[in-house]
Predict the 3D structure of the following.
Amino acid sequence: MTREVLLRALGVLGPLEALWTMATFLLVLFLGNHAAASGSAFAAVVFGQAANALASRSDVHPLWRLSLKTNPFMAWALLASLALLFLTYTSPLAQAFHHAYPGPWLGLSVLAFPLVALGDALLKAAWRKQKGA
């Protein structure tokens, strides 16, 4: 564990994901209801963590420059995460325990992915520029 990894995870990616999750929750709570807000926030965490997992595969390159072919387990893990998210909102059994759904605001949740990816890419670019100077 390096200083850069800790700074990136705890100082940039985590706060970006947390801020977007809370903003999504509050906006959907204001526009909709508690169940939709809770569901949207949960989905935002899932999408933010997916971006975080992909971004953490390199200390230098943004996630869109990395191939999933180098680690097929990552692709399976992402698919499993999305499948479990889908089941959480569609399965009657899951709904009996988790009375939440993202409703029409799922798009807000999905935006956590590009937000975390962009934050990671900007930080890595700044570090590359600093090291090159």
The chain is about 75% helix and 0% strand.
